[in-house]
Design a protein that fits this description.
The chain is mainly α. It has a domain of 58 residues: Orthogonal Bundle (Arc Repressor Mutant, subunit A). It contains 15 helices and 2 strands. Strands 1-2 form a two-stranded antiparallel ribbon. A hairpin with a 5-residue loop joins β1 and β2. α2 runs antiparallel to α3, α2 packs across α8 and α9 crosses α11.
């Protein structure tokens, strides 16, 4: 892969995202990476800006109640990420001097921080030469290097293959990691790749005649799912000023009482909500 061409393209055309700007801290980058998981940039940006102003350092978030963080999470989806980030903030404040560690292994030990996020923070916050592999990067490598339309299932070799593409110079490697992600997000997309605008002079997939994918995609629906039911119940508690009676939750999802009960139980198990001794329901930390 031509790293020079890709890096030049990125430096000329990269989106002006707020978490890419000078002066953004590792904590603020970590927050952006957690929010961006399975969530479009357009939905993340306004929430991220609010959180940066509200909780500029980990200790500020750690001091906030869990329910306040969940309420501020709003409609980003997968709200367990908010709870894990709150827990991570507490550990950073208590164990790491209110700073985000630079070492990947130490980052991996933090609550809610997985392989992708740890390397993304090390790379984008600290400029380290580490492979940062998400769905977009895997797709670009599958096409440009291996001539496949899709990457298939994640594998351990993804990190090794991506690291081999990075320039030896640390500063250029960090830019290359960002460029790979940008290429997959904007040009080498899953459904409609814009090959005419691709900055890479050579692509194995194009050379092979753009063979069709043999990966069967499963379309994830949302309407009528347990996720939607959970979201409706959480909406009631987010909008409430205190614990609410069960009937308020029952009215939020009437189409399937069994599904509603299942959603409510899962929210309790996940620690997103809690039940008071007198049978009321509230966001985590707001039941007293």
């Amino acid at each position: 892969m031509d790293s020079d061409a890709l890096i030049d393209w990125y430096r000329e055309t990269a989106r002006d995202l707020p978490w890419r700007r000078p002066g953004v801290t590792a904590w603020q980058i970590l927050m952006s990476e957690i929010m961006l998981q399975q969530t479009p940039v357009v939905r993340v940006e306004p929430i991220w800006r609010e959180w940066v102003a509200r909780w500029p350092v980990p200790s500020a978030m750690a001091a906030a109640p869990q329910g306040e963080v969940l309420r501020a999470w709003g409609k980003l989806g997968y709200p367990r990420r908010a709870l894990r980030l709150h827990e991570c903030a507490r550990v950073l404040a208590e164990v790491h001097g209110d700073e985000v560690p630079t070492d990947v292994d130490v980052l991996l030990s933090l609550p809610g921080i997985g392989a992708y996020t740890a390397r993304a923070v090390a790379c984008f916050a600290y400029g380290q030469r580490v492979p940062v592999v998400d769905t977009n990067v895997r797709r670009v490598v599958a096409r440009a290097v291996h001539g496949r339309a899709e990457a298939g299932n994640p594998a351990n070799r993804d990190l090794t293959e991506t690291e081999a593409l990075l320039p030896a110079r640390v500063d250029r490697a960090a830019v290359m990691s960002a460029a790979l992600m940008e290429l997959g997000a904007l040009i080498c997309t899953a459904r409609t790749p814009d090959c005419e605008r691709c900055p890479l002079p050579r692509c194995a997939w194009i050379s092979a005649g753009r063979p069709a994918s043999d990966v069967v995609r499963r379309v994830q629906k949302y309407e009528g799912t347990d996720r939607q039911a959970r979201g409706r119940l959480l909406d009631v508690l987010r909008d409430a000023s205190g614990p609410v009676e069960r009937v308020r939750l029952d009215l939020a999802w009437t189409r399937d009482p069994g599904q509603r009960d299942r959603a409510l139980d899962s929210l309790l198990v996940d620690g997103l909500i809690e039940q008071t001794p007198d049978g009321l329901f509230a966001l985590a930390g707001e039941g007293s």
